[in-house]
Design goal:
By secondary structure, the protein is of the alpha+beta class. It contains 14 helices and 20 strands. The strands form five sheets. A seven-stranded antiparallel sheet has the order 17-16-13-14-15-12-18. Strands 6-2-1-10-20 form a five-stranded parallel sheet, covered by helices on one side. The chain has a three-stranded antiparallel sheet with strand order 3-5-4. Strand 13 and strand 14 form a beta hairpin. The longest helix is centred in the C-terminal third of the chain and has 24 residues. The mean pLDDT is about 95. The structure holds flavin-adenine dinucleotide. The site of flavin-adenine dinucleotide has 40 residues, from helix 1, helix 2 and helix 14.
């Protein structure tokens, strides 16, 4: 029986352990926290957005080959993942149609975390919590995993599922990333992704609590991202799915020569719609026309930003004023000063280059018997269940790979 050690009982590691054990490996799941799966617990506002309702692969972000990314994702199609949760784990999922997300029918993230660990136990996985792994290295034809305050563990294969750097109090300390780099793997620089942006913009800061649906674009010469959806003004800046989904472009630009420009279309209306709504007619005020499509306080700020008198009637609105207003409403500049970083980031961008692993088995191309999955790898998706999709798919492939390759080699 091959012995597989999985490091990290998060999303990817718990699934890797389940599949390694079900494929016949003696499987040990090492976890530094008392209970594991802490990101699962806080995910989706405590409801755990387990999966998206459908997958648009082009929405994943990587500096590696998108082709490799697709191969890894397709190793476990969405419908089979849904069946795993519903049939094997006994966790029925429900659709939230407006956001295209899937949640457990109980709307309790704990059911997902507990369901995974209970299923792992049924498959024979030995879960070892409160164990901080300090390193792993080739040893005697296999692998040795060193732990803080406990004897080392020897194995035929190791699965690294230690996650990234985001929200460190969930257990992520970047150990996997560091050791994998030491072992010679190419790393793409890591950065906080899906994180709120900060702004020192008194007009907008005063709108804290106002939310609406917008389309945002963040752009530099090197990269761009566009996202539509919820947008929230906070005391310090902006949050909501649309902000999180473009934040990586802003975050990365802070370390580069050119700072990203973020522009916003504040409503579903484009140039033509606004031109029609603001055409010179009638006694309606400019503010009245704009606030019909936007929250009132925001409407007032935007009209002021366009340097238009809010009380002017549409009949009196000059052409140059209308043009400035339409520009502000359709392509307004969103001032931003920084980001909330890893403290609030839902994921880590960058990580182990995808070319460093075999997409069928997730085995390292540098070291036999070493398997890598989840957020440690250079890929992340948008808000909406995409990041668990990635962790479940790569975790399963790594667990099966570790057990089967070692069985075949035994
Ligand atoms: C607030 C928040 C909400 C989110 N909501 C969603 C959502 O609704 N849907 C979605 O798809 N994604 C969501 N995500 C993203 C998702 O949680 C991650 O993409 C996913 O958890 C990554 O899985 P992973 O197994 O690679 O890493 P993790 O889940 O972070 O697991 C890594 C595990 O390894 C353990 N570990 C780390 N280092 C060591 C060590 N040295 N020794 C032993 N153990 C170690 C950690 O304690 C942890 O248990 C959210 C993230 C956050 C922060």
């Amino acid at each position: 029986m091959p012995r597989v050690v999985v490091i990290g009982a998060g999303a990817a590691g718990s699934v890797a352990a389940i599949f390694a054990a079900s494929a016949g490996a003696e499987t040990l799941l090492l976890e530094r926290t008392r209970d594991g799966g802490r990101k699962i617990l806080i995910s989706g506002g405590g409801r755990c957005n387990v999966l998206p309702m459908r997958v648009d692969e082009s929405r994943f972000v990587t500096d590696s080959s998108p082709n490799l990314l697709r191969k890894m994702l397709r190793s476990w199609p969405l419908d089979e993942q849904v069946a795993f949760f519903e049939r094997d784990l006994g966790i029925p999922l429900v659709d939230e149609v407006e956001s295209a997300k899937k949640f457990p029918a109980s709307h309790r993230a704990r059911d997902v975390r507990d369901g995974l660990l209970a299923h792992a136990a049924r498959q024979g996985v030995r879960f070892v919590p409160d164990t901080l792994v300090t390193g792993f290295h080739p040893h005697d034809g296999g692998w040795r995993v060193t732990c803080d305050g406990a004897p080392p563990v020897d194995a035929d294969a190791v699965v690294v599922a230690t996650g990234g750097l985001s929200v460190p109090n969930t257990g992520s300390d970047g150990l996997g990333l560091r050791v994998l780099e030491t072992l010679g793997h190419t790393m793409h620089p890591t950065y906080a992704a899906l994180t709120p942006l900060t702004a020192d913009a008194p007009d907008f800061n005063a709108l804290s609590g106002v939310s609406l649906s917008v389309t945002l674009t963040a752009r530099t010469a090197a990269r761009a991202a566009t996202a539509s959806g919820g947008f929230l003004f906070t005391h310090h800046g902006y949050s909501g799915p649309s902000v999180l989904n473009v934040s990586h472009v802003a975050v990365r630009s802070r370390a580069e020569a050119e700072r990203a420009r973020v522009t916003v279309r504040w409503s579903a209306n484009g140039d033509a719609e606004w031109e029609a709504l603001l055409r010179p007619h009638g006694a309606r005020t400019v503010l009245g026309a704009v606030r019909a499509a936007l929250p009132e306080r925001l409407a007032a700020v935007l009209v002021a930003q366009a340097e238009v008198d809010a009380q002017r009637t549409l009949a009196e609105l000059r052409r140059d004023e209308r043009q400035r207003l339409v520009e502000t409403l359709v392509r307004g500049t969103l001032p931003w000063s920084g980001d909330e970083g890893y403290r609030k980031a839902e994921v880590t961008g960058g990580g182990v280059a995808l070319a460093e692993v075999d997409p069928r088995t997730m085995e390292s191309r540098r070291h036999a018997g070493l398997y890598i999955c989840g957020e440690v790898l250079d890929a992340f998706g948008p808000i909406g269940g995409y990041n668990f999709l990635w962790s479940w798919a790569t975790g399963r492939a790594a667990g099966l790979g570790a057990a089967r390759e070692r069985l075949a080699g035994a």
